[in-house]
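ok so I'm stuck.
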Amino acid sequence: MTPELTEDEQAVIEQIERFAREILAPKAAEIDETSSFATCHLASLAEMGLMGMNLPESCGGLGLSGPGLYRAVELVAGACGSTASMLTAHFLATDSILLGAGEALRSALLPRAAAGEILGAFALTEPMAGSNPMDMRTKAVREGDHFRLTGSKCFISNAGEADFIVVYAKTDPQAGARGISAFLVEPKVTNGVEIAPAERTMGLKGGHVFGISFDCLVPAANLIGEAGTGFKTAMKVLDNGRIEVAAQATGIAEAAMNAAISYAKERHVGGHPIGDFQGLQFMIADMANQLAAARALGLHAAGLRGTGRRFSSEAAHAKLFASEAAWGIADKALQIHGGYGYTRDFPLERYLRDLRIFRIYEGSSEIQRTIIARGLLA
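replied:
not stuck anymore, here's the structure
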């Protein structure tokens, strides 16, 4: 049992563990092979209450603590990375409303999102503005009771199926970070929102990402918070999201390590299980050590979530270390499987493909290093 969890939270985690093992894991290879969107699990996720895991009970969520949410995301990711990707992208959208919007938008949207009635997307990244959001070119200009939203976004998870998208745009191009605002856009009922076909990706093939172009009117009531507060909201949301990326990474890494341990017990060479050989034992020990360190950093950052203090550096530490360590763990796990690990009959190659994006999105490893270093040098 994770020490940070209450008895009620541990009961929830045990339910999620069974759900992940019995429902998510058996379908993961098929989702990957066919690139079918992981929305096939939406109804089950909603029934379990998992669409609102990141939200307080007052908003219809499960009210999990930061560490509880971390463990829950780990379990989903370890069973199906694509489903975890879809789920945490939804969390980015609902976190934007929770942390940035007023009571009217929160009460109108969050209970429905927590119940799984509507799916969200988070639109920050642009073709010319990835690592530096202030380079964004998407604009929102006031026109009476509306804003004219123009521009484009790329690599937006869930966008093709989303009922609402939180879009970040410049309302005052001369004001730098204070000129960025956030808007709630409903793509299925808003003219002028065009969503491109899903990108063909290396991994997380069931967690679809899309390009979006905008030339539409958005009601002024759909401004999230006050004009100019969008950048601040986005950075808070990304602090949360980076912890969730760390959780996804450690969840997949744990699945890879467990597969390697099982294989090392079952595979015999010269009449002995290969787990008897010291060289392989050292590999497994290193994997376990890296996983424990990554999880400790992740849980430390997760424990700061919801406390009211900033934890950008701690989130950066967690994401950086977990995403880098998980790749090494999965690579060793594949190596232990030998040639079988390189085939699609085993999940190791999928784990590696799924893990690769974690060193890039929601702030690349290089950006995390910059955040950590600037915090130390301030």
